[in-house]
Every structure is written in structure tokens, then in C-alpha cells.
Amino acid sequence: MDVKKPASQENLNGDESESQISHLALDIGGSLIKVVYFLRSNGSGGSVDDSGKKSDPVLEGRLHFAKFETSKINDCLEFIRSKNLHLAVNMLWRQAFSRQYAFEDIYVLFICLQIKMNPGFRHHDASASDKTLIKATGGGAYKFADLIKEKLGVVLDKEDEMDCLVTGANFLLKAVHQEAFTYVDGQKEFVQIDQNDLYPYLLVNIGSGVSMIKVDGDGKFERISGTSVGGGTFWGLGRLLTNCKSFDELLELSHQGNNRVIDMLVGDIYGGSEYSKIGLTSTNIASSFGKAISDNKELKDYKPEDVARSLLRMISNNIGQISYLNALRFGLKRIFFAGFFIRGHAYTMDTISVAVSFWSKGDAKAMFLRHEGFLGALGAFVSYENHGLGGLKTHQSVQQFAVSETYAGKKICCLVNEDLNDNESIDFGVAFAA
Ligand SMILES: Nc1ncnc2c1ncn2[C@@H]1O[C@H](COP(=O)(O)OP(=O)(O)OP(=O)(O)O)[C@@H](O)[C@H]1O
Ligand SMILES: CC(C)(CO)[C@@H](O)C(=O)NCCC(=O)O
């Protein structure tokens, strides 16, 4: 494809082929593979600054996000291979998504990056693909390393999963305007993050399993707890109990259900009364799924939507409670919940928020992240910077961006163009300034 460059553009390293860029990072989890890739925009790479002076070359492009079920890893690898994302290939962003892949979701035109290349930085060379290192995190970076080498001919450069989650969370909280929000009484309210007062916080990542991480700064963290009752439990048990064929179908079902049909409430035990002495109202759940022991019913006698609702409530409530207890252990007031279990689902967020608020007597706050599922992959992507890529420096001409924060010693400017809609599809710009 012909690339029309602005007159100001120069080759970054004096070699046309090496001015092409496609950075890819993977987070291969127990349930889902998250893919983040940067593609250079048409004609980016200008090297004249606002005042007309020659400056460092700049690449502009976009970060794209996609996810696949881990069980369909071959679809993911085929997607990467067919788009040559593992190589240094230019202009891929222009190609139509002409083939259908079983990707779960794809976010395109998502983040615009302006990247100032360090002098001496050399891109991946397509002809040396056997030496190409792709940043990858999550258990699958170990489990599937050989398969990926075989199918794509690339070696995975493994990054620690917890490191990546924290890096991704810090990156989003500092760089992205309106990233965090509370969800109370059906209302989403964005939280203004004060960079100077971000730490410490508790990061609860609800993937297949749940990790709880106390974050004290950039790269400063401790995984203080976890639970195996997480997103995998909801989807696994839910699938068995309802015969749902997809996670989204199960979520949708839960939306329509009534948990009181199956959950035993305090009122069911107390003849309709509350137990106010210990702070329980009559509608508080006394025992999740507890009614099923006395109803003399079979599974088929319950509506799948009621089962899905009880299950979602039980798991969300439990995670909210364990999270709060861990926050209490370390005196943490802010808890950020992430991971693809949440899926921006109102009932999930509401249950977690209520659990945190109930147990903390309103003292602690549950907050959610708009890019909930991509923390690890973003962390792996950002880690290119830490380990030799050296390219993710930024261009000064980003003053037009609305938000300007400091991240890892660098100035990051970011603009949210549109509000996040219900599909969590978002269009915004990010730029880094040196
Ligand atoms: N389309 C989907 N298919 C399967 N699970 C989904 C889907 N969408 C959301 N989920 C939920 O998200 C969870 C996976 O979340 P996430 O991708 O954050 O974790 P993971 O990286 O796969 O897991 P882990 O970190 O424990 O290895 C699933 O267990 C499920 O509850
Ligand atoms: C094992 C991991 C870290 C893999 O992502 C995750 O699934 C998890 O945190 N599970 C919970 C394990 C536990 O702490 O009980």
C-alpha cells in the first residue's frame, strides 16, 4: 500500500523498512487472551515541531484492543499471523477486517499514541522474525510459548502478570481521563484521580481467579490475597446450571432473574422481620442458594435466569467482602476492581459496591475501571519501554490534549473525545511527552 508522507517526515533510522512499526503485547489468561497492538497511522512520523524547528521524529498511531477465548487460541494466532502483527508491518490499520475470526470483541481506533523514537532505536525487522520478541504476560505466556513459537515463529518475552496488572492500572489511572468511576444506586460517577494522592490503593483483578494487590507506587506492590471463587467460577458453574452457551448469554440471563427465588433471605428465616441488632434487614441474603434445600425442587424447576442472578450475586458479594476485609487489613480506603468478570455489568458493579459499602459502613469505596480487562496487556505493552524498546517517548506537541499527568517520570497528555458507551467502546487520544 502506498504511504503518502508529509514533507517533514524523515526515516527514523535512515532505512525505510525500519520506519515501520507494529508493536504487539499479549495477556494470555485462564479464560481470555487479551491482545493490544499499536499500528502507525498513515503518514505519521513528522519531525518538525510546532515552531517549525526540526525535532525528533514522531510516530503517530493507534492502540487496538482485541480479546479471544483462550480455548480458541488458534483463532487468536491466526488473527495475529494474518495481520502480520508479530512482524514490523506498516499500514495494517487500513486493511479491512475482511475475515471473520472468533474474537470475542475488538476495540479499534481506541487510543492514539504519539511516539518519539529514541535515537538509535531499531524496530523489529520483518526479515528477522525468528528473533522477534513479543511481550506477553499471564499463565498462557508459559503454557503456550512453544505453540506460539511454532505457529508465529516468535519468542515470547515474558513479563510478570502482577507487575503488568499494576503497571496497566497505574498507567490507566494516571494517563486516561475519566478512567475510574463509582457505581452507586445505578449511577456511574467518574472519580477525579489526584496523582499526588493515588497510593496506596487495593487493586482487585477479577479474572478466572481473583488477585488482590496492595499498590504503593510505580512497581511497588504486594499481592496480599486472592480467591479461587472468581469469574471462572461464575462462568463455569453458570454454564453447568443454566446450559448457557456464552458468558454474555449468562450475564444477560442474570439481568432478567430474581435471586430471591433461590437465595434464603434474613426475612425467610425471621418470619419476615429484620435482625436489626446485628445490622441485617429482612431482605439481606442470609444464605446464597439456601432456599433450594427446602423447596423440594429440581434444578429444572428453577428458571435459569433466577439461578444466574443468585450465582452472580453470590460471587460478586463474596469478592466485595473479601476485598473490603483485605483493604481493612492494610487501612486502604480505595479499592479498584478490574478484570473481565465485571464486563461493565450494572448488577455486578452494584453488588460489589454494596458489599464494600455495607462491610465498611460507608468508609471504603469500590471503584471500577473502564478498561477493566486490559490492564495486564497494557502493562505488557508499556513494558516495551522498560526493556530496551526505548521508543515510547513522547512528542511535545500535545498541549492541545485536555489532561496532562506524569507517569513513570514522563509527561502523559491525554484526551477523551467521547464518553464511554454501554459497549465500553471508546475513542480517545493519548500522547506521551518526554
Ligand atoms: N466472552 C467471554 N468468555 C469467557 N469469559 C468471559 C467472557 N467475557 C467475560 N468473561 C469473564 O471474564 C473472566 C476472565 O477475565 P480475565 O480475562 O480478566 O481473566 P483471565 O486473564 O482469563 O484469568 P486469570 O487472570 O485468572 O488467568 C472469565 O472467567 C469470565 O468470568
Ligand atoms: C492464578 C492467577 C494469578 C492466574 O491469573 C489467578 O487466577 C488468581 O489469582 N487466582 C486465585 C488464586 C488464589 O489466590 O486463590
Automatic annotation (TrEMBL):
It holds the Pfam family Fumble. GO terms for cellular component: cytosol; nucleus. It catalyses: (R)-pantothenate + ATP = (R)-4'-phosphopantothenate + ADP + H(+). One of its GO terms (molecular function) is pantothenate kinase activity. Gene3D superfamilies: 3.30.420.40, 3.30.420.510. InterPro entries: ATPase_NBD, Type_II_PanK. Pathway: Cofactor biosynthesis; coenzyme A biosynthesis; CoA from (R)-pantothenate: step 1/5. Signal peptide: none annotated. It comes from the Eukaryota. It is an enzyme of class 2 (transferase). Keywords: ATP-binding, Coenzyme A biosynthesis, Kinase, Nucleotide-binding, Transferase. CDD domains: ASKHA_NBD_PanK-II_Pank4. This is pantothenate kinase. Its EC number is 2.7.1.33. NCBIfam families: panK_eukar. GO terms for biological process: coenzyme A biosynthetic process.
